[in-house]
Amino acid sequence: MVNTRLEADSIGSMMIPADAYYGVQSLRANRNFRITGQHMSDEFLRNLAMIKKAAAITNSHTGDLSSEKATAIERTCDEIIAGYMKDAFIVDPIQGGAGTSANMNMNEVIAHRASEILGGSKSEYTVHPNDDVNMGQSTNDTIPTAGRMTVLTLSKPMLSEFGRLYRALEEKAYEFRDVIKMGRTQLQDAVPMTLGHTFHAYATMVKRSAKRIEKSLDEMKSVNMGGTAIGSCINASPYYVENIVPVLSEVSGLPLVQADDLFDATEDLDGFVAVSGAIKAGMMSISKMCNDLRLLSSGPRCGFHEINLPAKQNGSSIMPGKVNPVIPEVVTQVTFLVAGHDTTIMMAAESGQMELNAFEPVTFHQLFESITSVTGAIKTLVNNCILDLTANEDHCLELAEGSTGIATALSPKVGYQEAATIAKTALHEGTSVREEAGKTGLFTEKELDTLLDLSKAVGKSSELREAL
User: What are the residue numbers of the active site?
Assistant: First the structure.
């Protein structure tokens, strides 16, 4: 038989497992919100605990919170930050109430553990979850602040992977700087280029995407702590309002500032929309690159086969020897995920009403998952695809030399129409552009050598080495 204790709130009384650090409000939320079957993000809980620690420090400076209680709360927060008591956080990440359940789950766990530290037990609140742990706060400033902090902390490894991808692509650009291939537009032969140019363009795109994301993250540094319920700072002391963000910045190590307009920062989620949109834009471009990689590696006998992707696993349960481009495929699937999450985040931001947006929980859940998934996707793309990707140099050159697209180089000498006739004849006869151009009598051998020298037709070459 499970030992229990009785706890009450404004709704009524409930029996709680005697050894549980959570309380009655957490258990109600656990039973009300059986939505995803998941737990709240560990990083989100760490940041929420940092907020509670910063609040205790700030309130102790005013004397509103006794030093004994403040010390017990700080110690408990440090334990949560270190990863202890994870099983005490029982609320689903998607919940009604704008995050009140998440806030109270944290308040109750801290209050019970801090009460233990002061010599009490879980059957009583020596430290009260609302009056002490939540002093000077509201769900409406703690939860969005924790959300912003979590976006910042989760984005660090994501941006690190963007940097690794950029550098890996630049290395490939340099490695392939002399590999001549045919450029394609609308999947049709266009004009010659180098495979180095292809990968340098990818690297440039990744660098630009990372900068776009970094710029959007600046908005996450502006938090509404001190605004309490709607931005009016009700129930918070003037000292607390002025000092909570600097203290939180010191506790967390994040460059946080208090929002200029606390009402706006409490009710509007457009900053999260901006971050999600920047991540989506970057992943759309990276997925486009992955589509290119799949095409360029298609074959091995009946496709482009200009590059070789590392063989990572068997590609079929029925076709022997088949190897699929599984890494680019999974990156594209993550892009689909991010796009869907972005739609949810946009809808949640738009659906807020008056002085608070009740849909922060789903916003955070989706954005956290996007960032985490993108981090993993780019990491596997670098480690399992880009680093060991190779080029089929001879085949690339053979395709380029046999393409009718090189007739473009003849236009300056004989004009567009004559060059087009040469290209069409070569295509119809199954001959080369050089052969058909020679038959016209319009070019000397030396002119053809110069005009059809693909090493000069590929455009500007560079060392292709920059640092992100």
Answer: 316
